[in-house]
Design a protein that fits this description.
Aminopeptidase; globular; alpha+beta
Length: 172
């Protein structure tokens, strides 16, 4: 199967929302409570929220799709830090691929898109947070040179979940 990645365009919001909800549920079911997951995805991953993100100059969204049928199977979101030059420092807010498509190079391709974007804008730093139990993602980010810089709590629904903060300082 062949895949493509690209920057999102108007009309991608519904596919992004569906993939986002499904990959969050797929990743965190059994690690967090079901109610917290449902509250989180309902509040954060709606079509309207993706539409707002895509319309903001402080966010960039990419989608991974199958070439045959152009079916969304993953995505990435970068959000510029506040009070800085646009994207000089930013959070890799999300990077998810359906498990069925892990090991096919899609995560790497999305990350390369993010890194290329960072290089183009002369970004200085990328940071992210990942659930401490998501060892697959932690190892993935380490392969790209991300280093753990802290521990935090992430609010989802009524629960608070331990997340690790990782950072990557980019060459000038």
């Amino acid at each position: 199967m062949e895949f493509t990645t690209r920057v999102c365009r108007p009309g991608d919001e519904q596919a992004l929302s569906l993939v986002a909800v499904a990959t969050i549920l797929e990743t965190y079911a059994g690690i967090t409570t079901g109610r917290d997951l449902v509250q989180y995805v309902t509040a954060e991953l709606s079509v309207a929220n993706f539409s707002r993100m895509m319309g903001s100059d402080r966010a960039r969204v990419w989608i991974a799709e199958t070439v045959a049928g152009e079916c969304a199977v993953g995505y990435a979101v970068a959000v510029s830090d506040e009070d800085t030059k646009l994207f000089s420092s930013f959070e890799l807010k999300r990077l998810y691929i359906f498990y069925r498509f892990h090991g096919k190079g899609l995560g790497r391709r999305l990350m390369e898109d993010v890194m290329s974007f960072a290089k183009q804008l002369k970004s200085e730093k990328i940071w992210l947070q990942v659930h401490g139990a998501n060892t697959h993602a932690i190892e993935f980010y380490k392969r790209f040179g991300f280093i753990q810089t802290g521990v935090d709590l992430f609010q989802a629904g009524k629960g608070s979940y331990r997340v690790l903060t990782f950072g990557l300082t980019l060459p000038r």
